[in-house]
Design goal:
This protein is mainly alpha-helical. It contains four helices and no strands. Helices cover about 75% and strands about 0% of the residues.
């Protein structure tokens, strides 16, 4: 169950992330402007593909594969944990295999 401390930590994490994003944006703004012509949906899709597929990072093997695996070993359990924190409980038939899968993914991430 989500309590006040959880919300405080979430707000703190979002504030730290926002500060980092602002600092990065200011640093990027010092460089040359980028040509951003075209459909914004295509640009957003390109960013999503770059983040999810790691095309540029996967050019350097095996480090790229390790980075991709660690990325998903963090993102998948985090997403599941956030979803499960909602005010409901899963049936044991679903919860036990899900817990096993998350534990195995965490073990492989180590």
């Amino acid at each position: 169950m989500v309590n006040g401390l959880d919300f405080a930590l979430i707000v703190l994490a979002l504030a730290v992330a926002a500060g980092g994003i602002v600092a990065k944006a200011r640093r990027i703004a010092l460089g040359q402007p980028e040509a951003r012509a075209g459909d914004w949906r295509a640009r957003v899709g390109g960013v999503c593909r770059a983040v999810l597929r790691h095309d540029r990072i996967l050019r350097d093997l095996p480090e790229g594969r390790h980075h991709l695996f660690l990325f998903y070993a963090f993102v998948i359990p985090l997403t599941v944990i956030v979803v499960v924190q909602a005010a409901f409980t899963l049936p044991a038939v679903v919860a036990r295999p899900l817990a096993l899968a998350l534990d195995l993914l965490a073990l492989l991430g180590l």
